Amino acid sequence: xxxxxxxxxxxxxxxxxxxxxxxxxxxxxxxxxxxxxxxxxxxxxxxxxxxxxxxxxxxxxxxxxxxxxxxxxxxxxxxxxxxxxxxxxxxxxxxxxxxxxxxxxxxxxxxxxxxxxxxxxxxxxxxxxxxxxxxxxxxxxxxxxxxxxxxxxxxxxxxxxxxxxxxxxxxxxxxxxxxxxxxxxxxxxxxxxxxxxxxxxxxxxxxxxxxxxxxxxxxxxxxxxxxxxxxxxxxxxxxxxxxxxxxxxxxxxxxxxxxxxxxxxxxxxxxxxxxxxxxxxxxxxxxxxxxxxxxxxxxxxxxxxxxxxxxxxxxxxxxxxxxxxxxxxxxxxxxxxxxxxxxxxxxxxxxxxxxxxxxxxxxxxxxxxxxxxxxxxxxxxxxxxxxxxxxxxxxxxxxxxxxxxxxxxxxxxxxxxxxxxxxxxxxxxxxxxxxxxxxxxxxxxxxxxxxxxxxxxxxxxxxxxxxxxxxxxxxxxxxxxxxxxxxxxxxxxxxxxxxxxxxxxxxxxxxxxxxxxxxxxxxxxxxxxxxxxxxxxxxxxxxxxxxxxxxxxxx
Length: 555
Known about the structure:
The longest helix is centred in the middle third of the chain and has 23 residues, at about 330-350. By secondary structure, the protein is of the alpha+beta class. It is globular, with a radius of gyration of 27 Å. The chain contains 11 helices and 21 strands.
């Protein structure tokens, strides 16, 4: 019942199949080769043309299977792995046509009835398929093309609208913690709350916590804050991000100052970097019951350097417990024990492994070892304890998931505040290696957590290609270089595809004292196809932006 066509050009598949309106669920190409002694470059070109051709006749949910001899693909699945320049670079080639590598497994000829390995040097001779691999590709979600938007928020019981910082456009109002959400971050938050409810009376704070804070926050570095510009509210503005409102880049840059007059518009506002100020304000009002845990949760935002554990946005859970003065230490121990029990239970259920959660006194904690600590900089001098995971010795990078501090609010009442990074906990429990995956729009992510059930995450984009570009520039005379702004521009322009920014060289002219910096940027996407052409275009745009915004002189 099969139809067989001969002399089909794999680089022009639509010429053979589109007239009948066919869309294939699976396209299989076993051991592609240009023939004879064709080198790696020609075979890459063949694969590139094949992938582009396949994209035109493949169903939306379809797969492309490509079998290659051991070492040809150039991925980490090859044993041994060839040097990248000497391989067919199959993941990078496929990315150029919008495909990601979703599975790799050994090629087993015996499972294909009637299959014969032939064609060695274009002859009727077999070739070695020992260690051969079958690569399964699927379509990637397209790289986002974010438009500037304006968002509404509650502020002092009034609705105001503000321009969303470009780097956060796809991360506002995602509703991960909403009642109908099946996102794993919500499940982790609910499990922690359920564990605490067995030890304390528990109350969720359902009041609307504003996304905005007014003015400068105590002990928060201004360069780590997303300042926003308020604009007069519009009746046509939606609460979500469905309606994009164009505004120039100049407006975004003016958000450091005051650009509006009247009502709230002459004041400075920022996106909240933490929920702790909200929790403190709540306790200062005095409407609380001693011994009760009050739970606040939501996304928080801050500008930070690019690193694996520095998150410009994450979900914070704040657990607040007012207690009688003198009993705060026992309350802290009960809090940590409950958190430890819940996290241990989740780890055992999901992966079978036990994680070490422990309380570390602030006095003995080496904060210089952390690159995920910017979320708690505002309370650094007031913290009593750090909550750490997987810390056999001292805490290392990525191990701090929360902090505990206390505050005396009356002669008899002390409030214990426990702040947790729910995103880092979720990544640890579910084995999610990249924080960006939590924010992916690819439906394959949430499909792995049906009904919010926590499971071990399986990546649907294997061995994603990475690309390295350098940029060198002269600093403007008399101005201090803002490295956080430099990293933020990299995030914005690349759509969070820059995974590493390294300072690799500095130079100062002896005669003039003029200083030059050279940075190395590594681009890689965890969930989407990223081609070398797209990265080259992004790099050019990045060069223009740093020259314009930071006033550096490109070399």
